[in-house]
Amino acid sequence: MQRIAGVPASGGVAIGPAFRWRRVDLDMARSLTEDPAAEWSRFQAALQVAGEQLEQVCVYAEEQLGAQDAAIFRAHQLMLDDPELLDAVLVSIQEQRLTAECALNDAVETYVQLLESLGDEYIGARAADVRDVAHRLLCALQNVPTSPADELTVPAIIVAPDLTPSDTVLLDKSLVLGFCTAQGGATSHTAILARGLGLPAVVGAGPAVLDIPALAPLILDGDQGAVLVAPDEGTVAAYRARQSAAQAVQVRAQSCAHEPAITRDGHCIEVVANVGNVAGAQAAREAGAEGIGLLRTEFLYLERTALPDEEEQYRAYRAIADVFGTQPVVLRTLDIGGDKELPYLDLPREMNPFLGLRAIRLCLARPDLLKPQLRAALRAGAGRNLKIMFPMIATVAEVRAARALLDECRVELAAQGQPVTEDLQVGIMVEIPAAAVMADRLAPEVDFFSIGTNDLSQYTLAADRTNAQVAHLASAFQPAVLRLVHQVITAAHARSKWVGLCGELAGEPLAVPILLGLGLDEFSMNPPAIPRAKEILRSLSLEEARQIAQAALELDDPEAIQSLVRARVPAAQTE
Ligand code: PEP
Ligand code: MG
Fold first, then answer.
1. For this structure, is 472 an active site residue?
2. Domain boundaries, the chain
3. In terms of Cα–Cα distance, which of 341, 377, 13, 406 is closest to 180?
4. What percent of the chain has pLDDT over 90?
5. Which one, of 288, 219, 299, lies nearest residue 12 by Cα?
6. Which among 70, 75, 534, 568 is most buried, taking Cβ atoms within 10 Å?
7. Is the shortest distance between the CB of 298 and ligand 1 below 6 Å?
């Protein structure tokens, strides 16, 4: 038995065969064919394969995202029958004797250039769809998978160099038992998605995982951050027992997940969820969420090939808010950049994407991206309890600029006679140290703060959240981060503003007592963490939690802080 250590990214245990996955580069060398007829048949076979794949994707997307969002894949299916495209490929194969790959590539590039030259934003965006379909066809021609989700046929644990957030969104949960990657950090968006899906995951396990043979029996320990290759029977039995014990804990916590989290001395704490789509919102409600503290709107658009227009966004936000009725839903405006790329936006490459034109910075530079979203949100908020939150705020000027755009949208909508949300609460994420330091100046500008400890940790410790080598530094249990959290809550409360926390820290059993003691008003977390967090909150009194938090702020490192909570709060103990 071999043990490979990595970074624990999403808790739980998975037992099953390894499924090795690696993104394959397509061979696009320009070449000619001796046999055009055979090349045309090969192209037709690829059309058939791509058509079958798209049918599966459509059915899956319709179930997970709804018919509206799945429509894009239905449109992709139609492109496979586009007579102009097919004719262009046929002519190139027959007359220029190009291989099917080259003929397709030429036809697609001509088509895309034509679309882009029309100067119409909507039609231009269709170019990305054409490229997407072409990529699928090229993969089919070379017999390589387009994504890990496409190749998996039996339940297995994915072993890969890395997975992007888009790869992860498309994982079929009925077949993926968990995943392990050579690269990545615990608060990368890939890890966050895994937690939301309840999939055990270990990331940053280094190159050793890439030597795991295909189908090797594995145990994936998402709590400890380890992969056991070819485990012996005793180890498998011990892990199966752990799986059942963890399930029992979860079942017990779930049985009162819909009760409020009231501390022993009678303080009711708001527990809400981080979600990215309608299915996530429904899962959150079932897990006991009392609303949404962070709607990551960009997650809605990762698996698409073009940004949705205002109308589509309006429908998506309305559908998500409706899951929670009168309960609050905090919609965060687009946070593109860092590890969340939307290839179809075609943004310039940056040396340091996490320090670049990300989130509100991009949106202020490109009001054409932000304004349709704000208009959609304002409309969706009419008659609903929707709040708007801006990400990556570093300065007071940014908040004012974002609010000015929001006002502009409100005026425009009013002039059009559109009903919009009344009494809108507007907040910001505090996830850049500059914002934490300036919390006293930012508080008067907003209705609330939500602390994003995932980014606050990486920026405070100067440690990339996706880099396994510095995972120990990019921890929200670092005392420097907790001190900033304390400072932000104090500054906001002094100005009668409420404070939430939507970084992964909010759902960490060992962090819950500290955050309660620091005076946090709203805990927002991945849905599977909710029942347990509520249980921990109910086991404490506010006074007791305050003492724990005070003691934690005096300690020097994350391990000491976690040991302190482990010793003082039995309900927060992990195995
Ligand atoms: C955070 O940074 O803590 C946060 C919640 O936002 P995201 O993880 O999407 O960057
Ligand atoms: Mg963030």
1. no
2. 2-23+148-247, 36-142, 264-572
3. 13
4. 67
5. 219
6. 534
7. no
Strands 156-160, 176-181: pairing kind: parallel
Tokens 């960009």 belong to 298
Query: Nearest Cα to 502, choosing from 548, 468, 456?
Result: 456
> If you measure from the C-alpha of residue 455 to the centroid of ligand 2, how many angstroms do you get, rounded to a whole number?
5
Does ligand 1 lie within 6 Å of residue 455's CB atom?
Answer: yes
Identify the top-confidence range among 53-67, 340-354, 429-443.
429-443
> Ligand 1, closest atom to CA 391?
6
pTM here is 0.78
**Residue of 300, 301, 429 best suited for mutating to test ligand 1, as the one with most atoms within 8 Å of CB:** 429
DSSP state of 348: P
Residue of 76, 180, 189, 363 marked active site? 189
What is the distance between the alpha carbons of residues 75 and 420, in angstroms, rounded to a whole number?
32
Separation of CA 141 and ligand 1 centre (Å): 39
Closest ligand 1 atom to 455 CA: 2
The CATH number that domain 264-572 falls under is 3.20.20.60
Q: How would you classify residue 79: left for phi > 0, otherwise alpha for psi between -120 and 50, otherwise beta? A: alpha
For residues 253 and 535, the answer to whether their CB atoms sit within 8 Å is yes
**457 close to ligand 1 (CB < 6 Angstrom):** no
Q: What is the pLDDT of residues 273-316, one digit of tens each?
A: 999 999 899 999 999 999 999 999 988 877 666 788 899 999 99
Which H, E and C letters describe 405-439, residue by residue? HHHHHHHHHHHCCCCCCCCCCEEEEECCHHHHHCH
Q: Is 267 a catalytic residue?
A: no
What is the tens place of the pLDDT at every residue in 459-470? 999 999 999 899
Fold of the domain built from segment(s) 2-23+148-247 = Glucose Oxidase; domain 1 (3.50.30)
| pLDDT tier for residue 223 given thresholds of 50, 70 and 90 | very high
Question: Ligand 1 in contact with 454 (CB < 6 A)?
Answer: yes
Alpha helices (H) in 272-335, listed in sequence order = 278-286, 310-323
Class of domain 36-142 as given by CATH = mainly alpha
Over residues 113-133, the pLDDT tens digits come to 887 777 666 666 677 678 778
Among 175, 76, 68, 206, residue whose Cα is nearest residue 134: 76
489, 504, 307, 274: which is closest to 389 by C-alpha?
274
Question: Could you tell me the distance, in angstroms and rounded to a whole number, from the CA of residue 487 to the centre of ligand 1?
Answer: 19
Ligand 2 center–CA 185 separation, angstroms = 14
Provide the residue count of the chain: 575
Query: To the nearest 5 percent, what fractions of the chain are helix, strand and coil?
Result: 55, 15, 30
For residue 159, the one-letter residue type is V
DSSP structure class, residue 102: H
State whether residue 461 is helix, strand or coil.
helix
Burial state string for 4-13 with b = 16 or more CB within 10 A and e = fewer than 16? bebbbbbbbb
Could you tell me the distance, in angstroms and rounded to a whole number, from the CA of residue 191 to the centre of ligand 2? Answer: 13
How distant, in Å, are the alpha carbons of 283, 457, 558 from that of 554? Answer: 38, 18, 11
